[in-house]
Write a structure and sequence with these properties.
- With 479 residues, this protein is of the alpha/beta class.
- It has a single domain, classed as Amidase signature (AS) enzymes (Alpha-Beta Complex), CATH 3.90.1300.
- It is built from 18 helices and 11 strands.
- Strands 1-3-2-4-6-5-10-11-9-7-8 form an 11-stranded mixed β-sheet, with helices on both faces.
- Strand 7, helix 10 and strand 8 form a beta-alpha-beta unit.
Length: 479
């Protein structure tokens, strides 16, 4: 098998070969590194190349296997890590110039879990300043570009991760999500992801000096962006392994009980007054039909309080940001990010003081209403965004830009406030005047049932096809 054939492999196909001994970890890593060196100069998705370190680790894995050690479930899989998470010996910059020398003393749990499973980190990926944009650009590393073309933002804040994995730079890409930061890049690049629920994946940065705010802790989760739903089923069981450094981690298995009868799916096209673009509507119809073909029982049904829950949740988060982060943003952020935050505070008037305490309490009301609804409808199929993905720097264009980027994305941050899992999967490739772009939909699920959301994503993917195939045809696959 040639190097150009190896980097194309999914994590699932790659591990089938490494476990049988038909492919070495070193060859798997080298192929991904070659691909990274070929395409990353145009994308700027990976901002720290870890090739030497990766190859040393790959050789060590091969030597251990030769001595009879059992390979891990992700043996030899090349992965990338986002620069806002600690990796021992490397800077946790969070896209901020002032943090460029903050060297991690130890690995974060997600890094440990991936490496304990046999994965090989080949590079660290870009994020916007403070990981608080749905686009990816910063003064430290510069702009990340979408492999579909420069007419589309790569998304954020895990924009480097989404662009990297869809361009073939590693089979798995780590990212995180406080209001959509796994799902925005998946939607922008045509990738597949699942935002895990609260407590599902252990999280902590050993380099941090203070604990994060309560909402940051409860809304932010760690996850993976992949090219296929099958790769989520392969990799997420390793990612959710427990770590005592996260005292609120919930040790639940990846797969839970099989549900009786056809699974009921609540299907909605409601965009709360924001115009539903025809291409998004076509994607939703395709996703619905795919689930029906796969044996799901899909019914048009409105889930409770999405708009109110999402807006209240993000306004409360902005209250916490205003209280705990504003001074850091003013001290270390560029003028661009400061201006964006000024507009964030206009779009989402921060809820503070006594009203913040009330809204934190009301979060349980929203979660309870959803819990009851999901007893009858374990899955909810909805838009992710009401229109195709936006252009780069749209959020720098004042109130109108921020409104298009984040204001209408209530299905995104509502799931973070509720702490529920939500998958994001492409359901259509749209040919727009600006150029081609994928259209993703969202599938929310019961608490602890990320597996159900990924199963549904796989059913949609089976009908639509995997979006990396037409992307690589447009890019030219190279060698």
């Amino acid at each position: 098998m040639t190097q150009s054939e190896i980097w194309r492999l999914s994590a699932t196909d790659l591990t089938a070969l490494t476990h049988k001994g038909d492919l070495s970890a070193e060859n798997a890593a080298q192929a991904a590194i070659n691909r990274m060196e070929q395409v990353n100069p145009d994308l700027n998705a990976v901002v720290e190349n870890l090739s030497d370190e990766a190859l040393r680790r790959a050789r060590a894995l091969d030597q251990a296997r030769a001595k009879g050690e059992t390979p891990g479930p992700l043996h030899g899989v090349p992965v990338t890590i986002k620069v806002n998470v600690d990796q021992k010996g490397h800077a946790t910059t969070n896209g901020v110039v002032a943090l460029k020398d903050v060297i991690a003393p130890e690995d974060a749990p997600v890094v440990s879990n991936l490496q304990n499973a046999g994965a090989i980190v080949i590079g660290r990926t870009n994020t916007p300043e403070f990981s608080f944009r749905a686009d990816t650009d910063n003064p430290l590393y510069g702009r990340t570009y979408n492999p579909w073309g420069r007419h589309i933002s790569p998304g954020g804040s895990s924009g480097g991760a989404g662009a990297a994995v869809m361009a073939g730079i590693g089979a798995l890409a780590h990212g995180n999500d406080i209001g959509g930061s796994l799902r925005f890049p998946a939607a922008a690049n045509g990738a597949v992801t699942v935002k895990p629920g609260l407590g599902r994946v252990p999280a902590w940065n050993p380099s941090q000096k203070t604990e994060r705010g309560l909402l940051a802790q409860s809304m932010s989760v760690q996850g993976l962006i992949t090219r296929s739903a099958a790769d989520l089923h392969l990799s997420m069981p390793s990612l959710i392994a427990g770590d005592p450094r996260d005292p609120f981690h919930v040790p639940m298995p990846w797969r839970n009980e099989v549900l009786d009868g056809p699974i009921k799916v609540a299907f909605t096209k409601n965009t709360f007054g924001y115009a539903l673009h025809p291409e998004v509507e076509k994607a939703l119809d395709t996703a619905r039909d795919a689930l029906i073909d796969a044996g799901y029982l899909v019914e048009e049904m409105e889930p409770p309080d999405v708009f109110e829950c999402g807006r209240i949740g993000y306004r409360t988060l902005m209250g916490e940001v205003l209280t705990l982060m504003k001074s850091d943003i003013e001290a270390a952020g560029s003028q661009t990010i400061q201006d964006i935050f000024d507009v964030y505070f206009q779009e989402f008037p921060p809820i503070v003081e006594t009203e913040m305490i009330r809204m934190l309490a009301k979060r349980s009301h929203y979660a309870r209403e959803w819990s009851l609804f999901l007893q009858d409808y374990p899955l909810v199929l909805s838009p992710f965004l009401p229109r195709p993905f936006f252009k780069p720097d749209r959020d720098t264009e004042g109130a109108e830009g921020v409104h298009e980027v984040l204001g209408c994305a209530v299905y995104a941050y509502a799931m973070n406030f509720l702490g529920l899992p939500a998958a994001c999967v492409p359901a259509r490739l749209a040919e727009l005047p600006s150029g081609p772009q994928p259209i993703n939909v969202q599938i929310a699920a019961r608490r602890w049932r990320e597996d159900l959301a990924v199963d549904a994503a796989a059913a949609i993917e089976a009908r639509v096809g995997q979006m990396y195939i037409p992307l690589w045809e447009r890019m030219g696959t190279g060698n």
